[in-house]
Amino acid sequence: MTQATARHILVSTEEECNELKTAIENGADFAQVARDRSSCPSSRDGGNLGSFGRGQMVKEFDAVVFSAPINVVQGPVKTQFGYHLLEVTSRQD
């Protein structure tokens, strides 16, 4: 089964998500932004979600994680939880 590792930032609005993506693209540290701004408990670990397989995350998240290029910030991705920025850090078949 394909496994991926990823990190994410969860916020409540698309506007905030876009603002944070711009900051990261302009050099802000993803992990620090996650610690400072993400509402997910993973924020304590810089947004790190660890390793997981297909179907273990909500479908909108899953679709991006298993198709996006590695180490490129994706988003905003809207789920039932809010708006995410995600970065796939590895993927293995």
Protein traits:
93 residues; alpha+beta; Chitinase A, domain 3; four-stranded antiparallel sheet; 3 helices
Q: Which strand order do you get reading across the main beta sheet?
A: 2-1-4-3
Low-confidence stretches: none
Task: Tell me the number of structural domains.
Answer: 1
How many extended strands?
4
Computed CA radius of gyration, to the nearest angstrom: 12 Å
Major beta-sheet overview:
4 strands, antiparallel
Question: What is the C-level CATH assignment?
Answer: Alpha Beta
Q: What share of the residues does DSSP label as strand, in percent? A: 25-35%
The helicity comes to 25-40%
Looking at the structure, the CATH topology is: Chitinase A, domain 3
Order of helices and strands: EHHEHEE
The shape, in one word, is globular
Count of individual helical segments: 3
Q: Give the structural class.
A: alpha+beta
Mean pLDDT: 97
Instruction: Quickly give the CATH architecture.
Output: Roll
> What is the distance, rounded to the nearest whole angstrom, between the alpha carbons of the first and last residues?
6 Å
Oligomer: single chain
